[in-house]
Amino acid sequence: MAYSLDSQRPQGDYAFQLLRQFDGFRHTIGLHGSRLIATDAEQHLRIIDIDTGRLEYTLKAPLMLNDPTLHSAERQSLDAVIVDNFVLSFCKQYIFLYHAPVSLPPQDTPGIEASDSTFESPELDAVAMYKWRWRIDTLIAAPRRSPRDLTMLSATATNMNAPPSGAPIIDVLTRFDTWFPWPVNILHHFVLAPNPAYHADTVDLANSETFPYLLSDTGGPFMVHSIPSPVRIFTPSDVVLGRYGTALWIDASTDVNTPSQAGDRGQRIAGKLLTQMPLPTERLRLGERPQDDNVSPGPVEPATLPSSGDPSGMADAAEHGPAVSVFHIQESDEKWNRVAVDEEGGRIALGNVNGTVSVYTYVPTERVVECGELQSEAAIGT
């Protein structure tokens, strides 16, 4: 079911208003504008238009051993990102890139209704893929933006002849699903760099050099830095990325004297403004392939990757940037299970296992527009 939020309704009325009800799938990946991305036991991604309730596309997971009955956990999608007509599916050990048709038959086409079972949505195969070296337990991905992107978007909206922008850099936060060689008590920040030569209107599916990402099977994400974030078995944890590079997570580090170890009880809400650094055109290591997802970043060529929106230019946060900020600690309860962030409004939303949602303010209103960054000196409050 799809709902809208009407905050202007009189007190006592329900703020959530039902928009549409339609058949869904077991696992929800995310909501991208008016598109809902979900998956099921078949591990295919389904893209649904919530305005019409129509299934737009089915993105098929590649077969194992050419056997459609085999469903490996390695191909289970954890997150997805839509860029122009491409969809990136981030799985437990793979990244799949799909190209979707430019348009579907309009909803008012005679004979096609939202609930018309005779309409068959296209089934699409991946056009490129990348395999991580290690299996992943937790992953969140988001295109990187900067405050000046708001100005650029406004200018593009008023100028229909504005040149198309390139593909954005994609930030990825992961926990590996292994204790060796990389324990789950570490969050790793990866960056998936875009193709600087990509243009949406010149894509040729026969030529991977025109794709926005994954130009080859070695062109995957590269490591930026790692963040200590201990978790405890059976204690809920969560990770979220804001639109402008703010990372927030729930973990079990409740002892300020040992931030790299889990406390006996309790939970912590911590965050960090992710590193924004010049991207190398190639990462060279002795005996390793370029663009491999080793956790140790290795030697980096001092070259930068051109991109629109000027997202780079800041020093490595691991050395010069803001440290991890702690926003809230509860030393006895372990009931937080979801976290969300509104960077423009300076608010954090916390979901509780009992169904309640708490909203906190972490940036003074007058500073939100001014800096658009996470401010650790602001006290958290309701």
Description:
This protein has 382 residues and is mainly β. The chain has 2 helices and 22 strands. The chain has helices at residues 148-158, 365-371, and strands at 2-5, 16-20, 27-32, 35-39, 45-49, 54-59, 77-83, 86-91, 94-99, 123-124, 128-131, 136-143, 170-176, 186-192, 222-228, 238-241, 246-251, 267-273, 325-330, 336-342, 347-352, 357-361. Strands 3-4-5-6-10 form a 5-stranded mixed β-sheet, with no helix packed on it. A 4-stranded antiparallel β-sheet has the order 7-8-9-11, with no helix packed on it. A hairpin with a 2-residue loop joins strand 8 and strand 9. It is globular and about 55 Å long. It comes from Pycnoporus cinnabarinus. Residues 282-292 have a biased composition (Basic and acidic residues). This is DUF2415 domain-containing protein. Residues 280-318 are annotated as: Disordered.
Descriptors for this entry?
5% helix; globular; 2 helices; 22 strands; 2 domains; four-stranded antiparallel beta sheet; Thrombin, subunit H; mainly beta; five-stranded mixed beta sheet; 382 residues; disordered C terminus
Averaging pLDDT over every residue, what do you get?
Answer: 74
DSSP strand tally: 22
| Number of separate helices | 2
**Radius of gyration, whole Å:** 21 Å
Main beta sheet, described? 5 strands, mixed
**What's the order of the H and E elements?**
EEEEEEEEEEEEHEEEEEEEEEEH
* First and last CA, distance: 30 Å
- Uncertain spans: 106-115, 152-164, 282-292, 296-321, 365-382
Which percent band covers the strand fraction? 25-35%
Domains (count): 2
In the sheet with the most strands, the strands line up as 3-4-5-6-10
SSE-based structural type = mainly beta
Shape: globular
Q: Considering DSSP H and I runs of 4 or more, what fraction of the residues is helical?
A: under 10%
